Amino acid sequence: MRDLGYSLETAVADLIDNSISADATMIEIFCDLARDHPTLAIIDNGKGMSADEVIVAMRHGSTSPTEKRAPGDLGRFGLGLKTASLSQCRRLTVASAQKGVPRSTEWSLDLVDEKDDWLVSILDADEIAGLPFIDQLGDKGTIVLWRDLDRLFEDETGMKRDEIVNEKLDVLEKHLSLVFHRFLSGEVRGRKKISIAINGHNVEPFDPFCRKNAATQMLPEEIVRIDGAIVRMQPFILPHHSKLSAKEYDYYQNRSDFISNQGAYIYRNSRLMAWGDWFRLIPKGEATKLARVQIDFPNNLDESWTIDIKKSRATPPYQVRERLRQVIARITGRSTTVHRGRGKKLFDEIIAPIWERYADQDKIRYSLNKEHPLVQSLSNGLEDDTLKKLKMLLDATSSSLPIEMIYSDFSTHPREIQQSQVAEDTVIERLKALKDTLFNGGEVDADAFREVVRSTRLFDAHMEITEQFIREEFA
Questions:
Q1: Residue 144, phi then psi, degrees to nearest 5
Q2: In this structure, are 167 and 38 located in the same domain?
Q3: What is the DSSP letter of 69?
Q4: Would you state the pLDDT for residue 104?
Q5: What is the DSSP track for 199-255?
Q6: Mean of pLDDT over the chain
Q7: Is the domain of 301 the same as that of 198?
Q8: Could you tell me which residues come within 8 angstroms of residue 32 by beta carbon, excluding any fewer than 6 positions away?
Q9: Residue 259: which CATH number?
Q10: Distance (Å, rounded) from C-alpha 103 to C-alpha 55?
Q11: Above pLDDT 90, what percent of the chain?
Q12: Helices and strands, counts by H and E, the chain
């Protein structure tokens, strides 16, 4: 039962589900490694539990999955508190208060091993008073304590142990910011906004759909009805990276690889269950890297979605998959258009681009434009033998374009790609050289010169200087 596949972040998320189901608005997580017995505590200000409820909560399978749950209940099998906790520790203590009276029970796997029996301990008042963080428990609420953290430290000690724990807490923060982002931002209808803190640091919501950016596209919502219940499907197309601010780009790139996190985002009662999957309807790729579909279903459809114990996997029923297939077909073109938009704009807006794109019999190739004014100007002054060598060089350059490398770099680090540009102190010098090459002392054309300048992309960072040069030289 300890090895159902929980990680630290999925285990803590399972406990937070219980806190939210108990109407908590503030959840604090403390990981204290300085104590003689390192402790991880999850504390909430929910409605708390009575003495009988604290005992029932420690029973494995305390609630049948076939039992009808309240609409806002995030529980599933009645196993999460125990399986999630004992996947990380050997000693689980739960203390809960109502009207200022705390009650507490404890599972100790060492005791279970010693007695060879499923014995749960009921703590008395003195034992409760000695619990770590018990002073954080108010008149109502619940504390879950993990001690004997044999899985958290990975058998390491000292600085290495602390380093491992800090890395795991960082992953935990990012996981919670995504899984509970709708609760953290206060957008769940009928619920107050909740706050989650880890060692005093507030967890900020992470919106996987980048909805605050005006360039994000929200497509029409789809609705599927299953046994009288409604499943909502909301497609989004994220902005091209050039439409993100530097802060937004760093934030999303740090937390969300665009290719691997494309796909459907499955929410059960507004809690994110699974994401980054097209359920084998299409393969992940560049064409859909900016596409996301938010899918919401209520907890009375749990059986249809085959929710696992960790609540980290969900499989859509047939009706939803078929509608999702239609949605994917509609959004694929939108995502491709946004992703390739900057390159397409370059070719459409520039009269004489240096690079040209050809689509011949379902084959696509890129080639240097031999009709470009710079090439023509150079060719006009060459003898036939030298001209043949120039054309051979252009053909070889076009054929050897490192497409795979460019694709890899642009897919993973689009903001870091920057072709060499003219330094500011040589802009005027280069502009004069370009003018002489194009017109060779003959009649000049400001508009034609401007188009060639744009096609080279050499002066993109210095367009103000370029325009001033054109005004002065072509007056």
A1: -115, 120
A2: yes
A3: P
A4: 95
A5: TTEEPPP--TT-TTSTT-EEPPPEEEEETTEEEEEEEEEPPPGGGS-HHHHHHHHHH
A6: 83
A7: no
A8: 38, 39, 40, 41, 132
A9: 3.30.230
A10: 9
A11: 35
A12: 16, 16
| Domain finish residue from 202, 235, 267 | 202
So what's the pLDDT on residue 341?
Answer: 46
- The rounded Cα 339 to chain-centroid distance in angstroms is 17
Residue 134, in any domain of the structure: yes
**Does residue 2 sit within a domain?**
no
In sequence order, what are the beta bridge partners of 217?
A: 237
Give the percent of the chain with pLDDT over 70. 85
Query: Comparing C-alpha atoms, which of 308, 303, 229 is closest to residue 273?
Result: 308
pTM metric for this prediction: 0.70
What digits encode the pLDDT tens for the residues 222-248? 999 888 888 999 999 988 877 877 777
DSSP letters for 388-413: HHHHHHHHHHHHT--HHHHHHHHHH-
78 or 123: whose pLDDT is higher?
123
Instruction: Determine contact, residues 75/63, Cβ cutoff 8 Å.
Output: yes
Q: Which helix (H) or strand (E) holds 334?
A: helix 318-349
Reported as a pLDDT band with limits 50, 70 and 90, residue 280 is: confident
Cβ-based neighbour number of residue 59 at 10 Å: 15
Residue 129 sits in the same domain as residue 198:
yes
- 145 and 187 fall within a common domain: yes
Please check whether residues 12 and 153 belong to one and the same domain: yes
Confidence of residue 347 (pLDDT cuts 50, 70, 90): very low
CA distance to 220, 222, 265, per residue, from 234 (Å): 7, 6, 10
Mutual angle of helices 8-21 and 158-179, in 10-degree steps: 50
